[in-house]
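quick one before i forget lol
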Amino acid sequence: MKPRSLCALVLALALPALAQDQPQLEPLVPRKPSQPQLPPIEPLSRPPRGTVLVGVLVLGALPDGVSSQMAEGLRAVLKLAPSVKGAVVLDAPQPCTNEACWIMAGAAANVGQVIVAALQGGSLSMKVVDVATRKQLAQAQRERVSSIPDEATASAEALACRLLVPAGCTGQVVVDAPEGVELSLDGQALRSGQSRMVPVGVHTLRIKERDTLSLRLLPVLHERTNALALGAPPAPAPVAAPVAAIAAAPAPAPGRSWTRTAGYVTAGVAVAAAATGLYFGVKSRSDLNAAESAYRNNGGVYQPSDLNTLQSGNSAAHTANALFIASGVLLAAGAVLTFAF
């Protein structure tokens, strides 16, 4: 290319840039969108308050003491439910045995849900009904529930806790017992005077002193200290020898002969009493072994039939002890009458 042509080309390219009076545009670069500065989120120190008001309705032909105590026990447990902000006891007409009546009672009290507890013939049923949607949300049932106020209330609290309180509900237990008495609660050793938190409901207290074993049901409620004081066990009542074992004493003869005859008769009665005591002793051991075997097989829990067997064994043991004592006394008296006179 000629030098003149090259110079003209350079000038042609440079002149537009020299004539431009605006600053050059920067290349387009995508920018990040600006975000507002949000305050830091503080950790929750406690769970949020509930939003549902629950109505408590207790049904069944129950005495006033049972009905009112059960209603108050349910109110205490509902305080622990994370979704419940409060509970009120409903005043519904009797009988009120269907969902339409429950919903009407809940709507009249302006509650969101109704929890219904019914105790009939030893069966305790519980249902949770939503007032707005008219639907049943949950239900549970328990058989062989006592109508004793504390036991009925403890069973009702356990069912309500199972339905509405996932974290569980507990109550405080304290049992005072005399020295030498061994205690266990639901198969776990318990010291006298020891305070223990256990789930609400009816528990089994095992009481053992020397060779005597007994069981007692212990209801545990949420809003109270469930204290029990055990006194010294009563002494076994003396048991008379069976009538069949007492022989009629012959008419006394003059001189030493009547004392010897009376001694022989007394010794015979002593032997009969000892034999009868031996029978009751064998029966006691058999019943107690059967109850203990069932206790282990059932995972540390006594069934009602096992409690009857255990009570029968303890009664037989008391009878055997009394008969052995009576036999010893009669045998000593027979020896005195036979050889001392």
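fyi The two ends are 168 Å apart (CA to CA).
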